[in-house]
Structure formats: structure tokens, C-alpha cells
Amino acid sequence: MQTKLFVANWKMHKTVKEALNFLNDFIPAVEKIKDREIGIAPTFICLESVGKAIKNTNIKLCAQNAFYEKKGAYTGEISPVMLKDLNVEYVIIGHSERRKYFNETDEIVNRKIKSCIEEYLKVIFCIGETLEERQSNKTFDVLKRQIEKGVEDIINPDYIVIAYEPVWAIGTGIVATESQIEEAHGFIKERLKNLYGERAQAIRILYGGSVTPENIYSIMNTENVDGVLVGGASLDPVKFSKIVKYEEQIN
């Protein structure tokens, strides 16, 4: 059975002070939990402070992005080597906001994934279709392309976690139905099996897209869901702790 993974993606929110205030409330709420993984991805400027605050806790330090080169004249970028130096364990790569606002292509995503794995960083590889693509019945075509191009030339999938985030559900309040999630996750699992055989069984598949304490129980009880990548609701320590303790949120 897969260890469930719950990751907070804070995006461009929280100063160092605000991040530490969050942890003061969040850590006591989840400190006894041992049967699942919890990750927090703050902004780059908060990584060191958050890393120190969660040391010796059950919370993993995650980053929201990384560049594909180890060092060089790349103004404004952060390398996997630097993230490793800060004891980062997971890196989010390929988020739809990176693809949309920063023009990240499947090829760039692939280079970033490979660069992170070279430093033994685990990758949360984000994929998902737009509303237009879903309405045009292109969901599976998009997911197939993103998966195959994203993991191209990656022989060892042990450092990869997939996050299915339908773009139309991110920050919109619209949540994919259980059947939509189950269908997409089932397709992803099948594609991974075609690429990696039995080794694909170990690849966790997260769901992301307007996850809240109110819908987490039904999401987590959907087939092939191994955890969640949470945006807005993860900014509140009470809400995110409820999401982590999803069994208690039976409506």
C-alpha cells in the first residue's frame, strides 16, 4: 500500500514571518501523524527558515520549481544543487502556472525533471488538461503527451510522483468529480505501466485542484488517488491540517 502524500503549494504567498507563524500552529496539529507524508513548498526566500523550523518533525521541505542547469549565468534561477544544499526533498515541476505564465514546454519540464533526479531530489511532476482540451475530448491525448515527453530518457521512475491537476480546477473552486478523477488517474497509471512495467506500481499519483477540507474525504477515497497537492487551502494551518487528517472529515 502506498504511503499517502499531502503537499502544500504556497505559490507566491507568505513572508518568512508569516510562514513561521503558520508552522507554530500547524506542527502541533500534525506532529503525531506517522503513517503519511506531509510536505510544504514555500517560496524560495522562505526555504531556509522553514527548513530549520521543520527539522526533526514529520514535515518534508519542498520547492516550487528548479532550473535545469547546476550553475551559471541564469539570472533569477535556482538550481537543484542549491535546493539539495537546503535539504529540500521534493520539487514541484511542470505546474500549469509555470507552463502558462513562464512558457514552460514539455521539453523544458523534462530537462528540469532529469536535473532534479541527478541530485536525488524527488519530483512532483504536474500534468493536466485545460477546459478547452477537456471539452474537445483531448484529455487523454494531452496527458499521454505530457507524461511521455516529461519522463523521456528517464529510466528510473523511483524519484517521480505524478500530480494530476486539471487546469480548469486550479484556483477556480471547481472540483473534478470522483469519476473524472478516477478516470484520469486510471489512464495515468496505465500509461506509466506501459512505460515502466511493474515498477510503475510504486509511482504515487496525487490530485490537485480546489482541494478543501470539505471535499478531501471523497477525493482520498477515489481509486488510484495517493494524496493531494493543495493550493489555496494550504495557506491556512487549520484547513491544511484537516486535509492531512482526511479521515476525520466525513460529511
TrEMBL record:
<dbReference type="InterPro" id="IPR035990">
    <property type="entry name" value="TIM_sf"/>
</dbReference>
<comment type="function">
    <text>Involved in the gluconeogenesis. Catalyzes stereospecifically the conversion of dihydroxyacetone phosphate (DHAP) to D-glyceraldehyde-3-phosphate (G3P).</text>
</comment>
<feature type="active site" description="Electrophile">
    <location>
        <position position="95"/>
    </location>
</feature>
<feature type="binding site">
    <location>
        <position position="171"/>
    </location>
    <ligand>
        <name>substrate</name>
    </ligand>
</feature>
<keyword id="KW-0413">Isomerase</keyword>
<dbReference type="GO" id="GO:0006094">
    <property type="term" value="P:gluconeogenesis"/>
</dbReference>
<dbReference type="GO" id="GO:0019563">
    <property type="term" value="P:glycerol catabolic process"/>
</dbReference>
<dbReference type="InterPro" id="IPR000652">
    <property type="entry name" value="Triosephosphate_isomerase"/>
</dbReference>
<keyword id="KW-0963">Cytoplasm</keyword>
<dbReference type="GO" id="GO:0006096">
    <property type="term" value="P:glycolytic process"/>
</dbReference>
<keyword id="KW-0324">Glycolysis</keyword>
<comment type="pathway">
    <text>Carbohydrate biosynthesis; gluconeogenesis.</text>
</comment>
<feature type="binding site">
    <location>
        <begin position="231"/>
        <end position="232"/>
    </location>
    <ligand>
        <name>substrate</name>
    </ligand>
</feature>
<dbReference type="GO" id="GO:0005829">
    <property type="term" value="C:cytosol"/>
</dbReference>
<dbReference type="Pfam" id="PF00121">
    <property type="entry name" value="TIM"/>
</dbReference>
<dbReference type="InterPro" id="IPR013785">
    <property type="entry name" value="Aldolase_TIM"/>
</dbReference>
<comment type="subunit">
    <text>Homodimer.</text>
</comment>
<dbReference type="InterPro" id="IPR020861">
    <property type="entry name" value="Triosephosphate_isomerase_AS"/>
</dbReference>
<comment type="pathway">
    <text>Carbohydrate degradation; glycolysis; D-glyceraldehyde 3-phosphate from glycerone phosphate: step 1/1.</text>
</comment>
<feature type="binding site">
    <location>
        <begin position="9"/>
        <end position="11"/>
    </location>
    <ligand>
        <name>substrate</name>
    </ligand>
</feature>
<feature type="binding site">
    <location>
        <position position="210"/>
    </location>
    <ligand>
        <name>substrate</name>
    </ligand>
</feature>
<keyword id="KW-0312">Gluconeogenesis</keyword>
<feature type="active site" description="Proton acceptor">
    <location>
        <position position="165"/>
    </location>
</feature>
<dbReference type="GO" id="GO:0046166">
    <property type="term" value="P:glyceraldehyde-3-phosphate biosynthetic process"/>
</dbReference>
<dbReference type="GO" id="GO:0004807">
    <property type="term" value="F:triose-phosphate isomerase activity"/>
</dbReference>
<dbReference type="InterPro" id="IPR022896">
    <property type="entry name" value="TrioseP_Isoase_bac/euk"/>
</dbReference>
<protein>
    <recommendedName>
        <fullName>Triosephosphate isomerase</fullName>
        <ecNumber>5.3.1.1</ecNumber>
    </recommendedName>
</protein>
<comment type="similarity">
    <text>Belongs to the triosephosphate isomerase family.</text>
</comment>
